[in-house]
Amino acid sequence: MRAVTTTTPDPEGHTPDVAATAPVRWERYIAMGDSFTEGLWDPYPDAPDVQRGWADNLAAVLSARRIAAGETPLEYANLAIRGRKLRPVIAEQLDVTIDARPDLVSLVAGGNDILRASADVEAISAALEDAVVVLRASGADVLLGTGFKAGAALSWTNGRTAIFNANLWSIARRTGAHVLDLWGMRSLGDLRLWSDDRIHLTPEGHQRVANAALVALGLEPDDDAYDNPLDAAPPAAFRDAARANAVWMRQHVGPWVKRRLTGTSSGDGRSAKWPTPQTWPRA
């Protein structure tokens, strides 16, 4: 990824790097959502018990660009909690977000709903639109995120995800929200950008999504090649693939099914990692 640095015109008058010097107008960013925005499988190198993820990366870039342009650092909070469905995200996080008076909010959720057999896509789409209307009325810009295009064992979700995505684009048109097009990211079709549980991204995957979020906000990415496919991988032997699938079923699918049967969530008892706006990056 290209580092964000300050630049000045050289003696021949060449233009400075736009991504490094263009001012970022947002001063306070709040991230709402579930595990995708919490940032699982992406620990901070200096704090391995704390997850980073795309939203933290996005906040860091926005803050760096503000500082490079002579502005104050960005203030940032991340309210996302793993396991939350869309309506609990809204119920628990919307009022807190409004009270913080941000000028930029990301609201990316719905994936946990879509994984349930009883998912009502139209109902969660309506709930999402109601929340976006409230956020936009507060004066905040809003960044929404489509659902992913799933493969292999999760490909059965693609039909309902496509309906949700179509509704989301309509909501964005009606409200003036920005859209992070995760469905359209070609690189995310590569399993190497997904963690062992196959539903959360690796650190590189989170970096790529942060770049896609910059583009969705009308800004230059830090890396123009953020959505380029990875180099081709050698084909996996059938025995190795079967063994990996068995491990995935035992370590990740089994516990997920057990939580569904017992009515529990991976987020039970958890609180937001960055609950109040703070100067970013954190000290």
Detailed description of the structure:
The protein has about 280 residues and is α/β, with parallel strands linked by helices. It has nine helices and eight strands. The chain has one domain: Rossmann fold. The strands form two sheets. The protein has a six-stranded mixed sheet, with helices on both faces. It has a two-stranded antiparallel ribbon with strand order 2-3. Helix 3 packs across helix 8 (about 205-215), helix 4 (about 85-100) runs parallel beside helix 6 and helix 6 (about 120-135) packs parallel to helix 7 (about 160-175).
Summarize the entry for a quick read:
With 283 residues, this protein is α/β, with parallel strands linked by helices. It contains 9 helices and 8 strands.
Q: Note the beta-strand portion.
A: 5-15%
**What topology, given as strand order, has the largest sheet?**
7-6-5-1-4-8
Q: In sequence order, what are the helices and strands, one letter per element?
A: HEHEEHEHEHHEHEHHE
Radius of gyration computed on alpha carbons: 19 Å
In the predicted model, the low-confidence regions spanning at least 5 consecutive residues are 1-21
Number of helices: 9
Percent helix, as a range, is 40-55%
CATH architecture classification: 3-Layer(aba) Sandwich
CATH topology: Rossmann fold
> How is the quaternary structure best described?
single chain
Number of strands: 8
CATH homologous superfamily assignment: SGNH hydrolase
* Global mean pLDDT: 87
Number of domains: 1
The CATH first-level class comes to Alpha Beta
Distance between the termini: 22 Å
Q: Based on helices, strands and strand pairing, what is the structural class?
A: alpha/beta
Shape: globular
Q: Biggest sheet, open or closed, and with what strands and sense?
A: 6 strands, mixed
